[in-house]
Task: inverse folding
């Protein structure tokens, strides 16, 4: 089997970024490069997913070095699903950005940065090496630092400072954890770590588990490490906020799921308090996120707080540590990437159409821009978990899994938070689409377009909404796929054997 | 790991953390630098005792006598990354100084708006960020760009 395919998601966007720098000011060429690279990645990710689902893990060894020595790229079903969904979202948001007058047109650096971000995200998914994961995170974060402050406006600089400092602290903690892990086990290969961590003192292992949880929890926006998120995300340019909201926190969630299931499986040396810890964190994250959203008056900030509360659901699925729970978490992650990105794209459309995203300054868009209203309604109802949308299926399988492992408290919290999510979405709906604006917007509304915005923006949003609807139409096969992914995740022997065993590259 | 290096790393972490809690970005940058040094030192010491031969020294026969090169390579990577990001952070601080003649890390304005909203009868005065600290830089007339 040709495993060099795995190098494409790592190498292609970096090469693309280099070419995009070289072609520089010729905007059309830059766009062609971005779209080509991301399209190739989507195709490769689809092929990888098909192969992995058929044959099991795909492993590629960089430079031909065998597993614990060299850097290993390894894809299981979960990684392949994440890779496919994230590249699709990256492609759609790139098209959206091209339709908008803004950073994409004014700054030469937008396309190279966007591709480096794509490289960081996809490398995080395919790597089997903890230090390589750190490098992938840094790639993603370095690009995101620049993207979040791309306009150089005062509010961006203010929010950017907090974001950069918090991320740097998280990175330093990551290096510290890596140093301690290496001192204890002598390896940074995740499969090797999974074996060797079984031999270290259980107390030490708990410590490592919590340290990694903190490191990735900062990126994912877990309670109590989420404070930076609703402050910094909304200040970035529209499409950038969308991609951050959809992907960056989910990369953190992916890393949590990967490390906790592979390296710290429950039941080995009495790690049972760890599961409860995850459930407590999940519950607190859900409640705090949704309560924070209620107080806000800005559409983007409400949505940003909802990222936090939704992260709680994913961690809840992981915290149950059953096949049904982890399968629900996998389904929840991919549903949320699509739906949340779509909602932020709609927020960008509203921002452009009305001149602001502040609820008190917008109103009556259902009459003046019905297309935007329709594009908002579908992902909003999906996020709140109303049938027949994908959010309902995700919440239903999560609730089902919770009841099956008789974790009634967390299920009750999850359902209650779902009601509040619906309340927030209703608040945005009444504020933005009904009624009249109370105050004047900060910028001039752009009302010329027939569909409420430039065609590429509307079409890109429509595509993403279409993907989320497709999730509910093909929910059966997708849920079975996430179930298989969950079985992989919970039984780490397949992963370890694929990386360390065999030896043939 | 030698005790001296462990103590040095601990001191670096402590000083870095203290500086990180300051309001000024310049101090935060130095704090992050110190934290990074602490982490890298820890990474290097995780490879074993100091003073062993490098891997290219042909005179030592037993592999156990060599110093482990991997943590050093990892530390090098981490140093390069920290360097790049610190440079960016300094540029950000400079931009902040260009805009405000100040590099103070400010509170979230929206948070303060929200916290003020539930006492609506209160006076609509300017938002007080509760920090009387003034700028370290000279503020001249008409300098604010």
Result:
């Amino acid at each position: 089997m040709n495993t060099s395919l795995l190098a494409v998601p790592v190498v292609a966007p970096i090469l693309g970024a280099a070419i995009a720098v070289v072609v520089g000011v010729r905007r059309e060429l830059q766009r062609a490069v971005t779209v080509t690279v991301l399209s190739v990645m989507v195709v490769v990710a689809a092929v990888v997913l098909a192969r992995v689902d058929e044959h099991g893990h795909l492993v590629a060894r960089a430079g031909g070095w065998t597993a614990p020595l060299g850097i290993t790229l390894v894809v299981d079903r979960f990684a392949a699903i994440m890779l496919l969904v994230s590249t699709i979202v990256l492609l759609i948001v790139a098209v959206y950005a091209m339709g908008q007058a803004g950073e994409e047109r004014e700054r030469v650096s937008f396309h190279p940065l966007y591709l480096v971000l794509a490289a960081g995200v996809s490398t995080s998914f395919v790597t089997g090496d903890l230090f390589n994961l750190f490098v992938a995170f840094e790639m993603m974060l370095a690009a995101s630092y620049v993207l979040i402050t791309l306009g150089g406006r005062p509010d961006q600089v203010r929010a950017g400072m907090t974001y950069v400092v918090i991320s740097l602290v998280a990175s330093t903690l990551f290096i510290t954890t890596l140093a301690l892990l290496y001192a204890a086990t002598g390896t940074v290969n995740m499969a090797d770590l999974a074996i060797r961590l079984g031999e270290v003192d259980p107390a030490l292992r708990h410590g490592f588990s919590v340290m990694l949880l903190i490191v990735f929890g900062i990126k994912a926006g877990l309670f109590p490490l989420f404070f930076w998120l609703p402050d910094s995300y909304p200040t970035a340019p529209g499409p950038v906020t969308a991609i951050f909201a959809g992907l960056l926190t989910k990369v953190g969630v992916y890393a949590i799921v990967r490390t906790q299931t592979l390296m710290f499986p429950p039941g080995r040396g009495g790690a049972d308090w760890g599961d409860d810890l995850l459930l407590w964190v999940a519950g607190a994250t859900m409640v705090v996120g949704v309560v924070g959203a209620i107080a806000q008056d800005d559409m983007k900030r409400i949505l940003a707080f909802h990222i936090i509360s939704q992260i709680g659901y994913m961690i809840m699925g992981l915290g149950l540590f059953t096949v049904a729970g982890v399968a629900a978490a996998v389904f929840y992650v991919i549903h949320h990437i699509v739906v949340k990105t779509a909602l932020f794209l709609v927020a960008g459309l509203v921002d452009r159409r009305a001149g602001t995203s502040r609820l008190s300054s917008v109103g009556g868009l259902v009459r003046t821009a019905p297309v935007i209203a329709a594009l908002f309604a579908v992902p909003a109802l999906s996020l709140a978990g109303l049938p027949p949308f994908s959010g309902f299926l995700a919440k239903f399988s999560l609730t089902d899994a919770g009841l099956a492992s008789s974790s009634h408290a967390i299920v009750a919290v999850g359902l209650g938070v779902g009601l509040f999510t619906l309340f927030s979405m209703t608040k945005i709906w009444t504020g933005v689409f009904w009624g009249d604006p109370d105050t004047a917007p900060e910028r001039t509304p752009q009302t010329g377009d027939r569909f409420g915005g430039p065609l590429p923006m509307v079409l890109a949003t429509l595509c993403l909404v279409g993907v989320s609807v497709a999730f509910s139409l093909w929910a059966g096969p997708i849920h079975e796929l996430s179930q298989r992914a969950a079985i992989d995740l919970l039984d780490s022997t397949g992963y370890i054997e694929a990386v360390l065993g065999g030896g043939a590259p | 790991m030698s005790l001296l290096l462990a103590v040095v790393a601990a001191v670096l972490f402590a000083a870095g953390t203290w500086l990180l809690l300051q309001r000024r970005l310049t101090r935060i940058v130095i704090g992050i630098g110190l934290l990074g040094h602490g982490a890298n030192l820890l990474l290097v010491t995780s490879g074993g005792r100091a003073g062993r031969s490098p891997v290219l020294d042909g005179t030592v026969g037993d592999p156990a006598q060599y110093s482990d090169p991997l943590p050093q390579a990892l530390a090098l990577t981490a140093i390069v990354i920290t360097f790049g990001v610190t440079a960016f952070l300094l540029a950000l601080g400079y931009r902040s100084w260009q805009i405000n003649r100040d590099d103070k890390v400010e509170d979230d304005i929206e948070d303060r708006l929200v916290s003020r909203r539930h006492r609506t009868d209160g006076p609509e005065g300017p938002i007080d960020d509760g920090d009387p600290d003034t700028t370290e830089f000279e503020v001249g007339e008409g300098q604010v760009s």
Observations:
- The helical segments of chain B are 3-20, 25-45, 69-100, 109-117.
- Residues 121-125, 128-136, 138-145 of chain B have pLDDT under 50 and may be disordered.
- The interface with chain A takes residues 1, 20, 25, 28, 32, 35-36, 38-40, 42-43, 45-47, 68, 70-71, 74, 77-78, 81-82, 84-85, 88-89, 92-93, 95-96, 99-100, 105-106, 108-111, 113-114, 117 of chain B (CB under 8 Å).
